[in-house]
Amino acid sequence: MYTLYYAPNTASMVVHLALLEAQAAYRLEKVDFSLRAQKDPAYLALNPQGVVPTLVHEGVAYQETPAILMLLAEHFPDAGLMPAAGSIAHARCREWLFYLSHNLHATYRLWFYPETLGHTELPAALREALQMRMAGFWDFLETHLQNNGPYLCGDQLSVADFYLTVLMRWSRHMPRPATGWRALQQLAARVAQRPSWQLMCERESPEPWHPGAPA
Ligand SMILES: N[C@@H](CCC(=O)N[C@@H](CS)C(=O)NCC(=O)O)C(=O)O
Q: Alpha helices of the chain — where are they, by DSSP H?
């Protein structure tokens, strides 16, 4: 049995999706951000950074979204979460997980947590700089998907696509939402049509988001 410490609308969505896709037995434990529960000592004992997701399995608490996704792919090798272990495709998938975490996820943190940069609200110049950086990532991903898609690992859907879709979702209120890039929009539309996405939304009740229809 897995326990997922989650907060709606956050990176824990992608771990939730992976648990559903793997048909794993799990329970949800909500971390209430409005009460700053992510900084409670009891939660910090599980996740010293005070962030979600945390996945607990057999008494061990696991952190860091891409690392948890790789762990679940290891625990459920037949669930198709990642290409077969040991293959070049698997290595490529790992690369994408790192890419998404290091670039998009890290930049979003600066956008959503301006205090990280010593501001209560981001100054206009910084907002513009971060938006430009995000657009550069979307351009890069769009070119990759146009040439090698429809998914990040070609024909094979993987947890990297779930991660990407969750990251795209966060841009919905930004001046240039990621769905403005056609191949990205198509990928997100396919992911959002999956039963796992629908079920995750039913169980977490995040703010509604419709990336549009697949072609
Ligand atoms: N590197 C971490 C980042 C996790 C993260 O940024 N989580 C955000 C939500 S998406 C969070 O918990 N924010 C609450 C806070 O920073 O207080 C991971 O990949 O899991």
A: 12-21, 41-44, 65-75, 88-99, 106-112, 124-148, 159-169, 182-192, 195-204
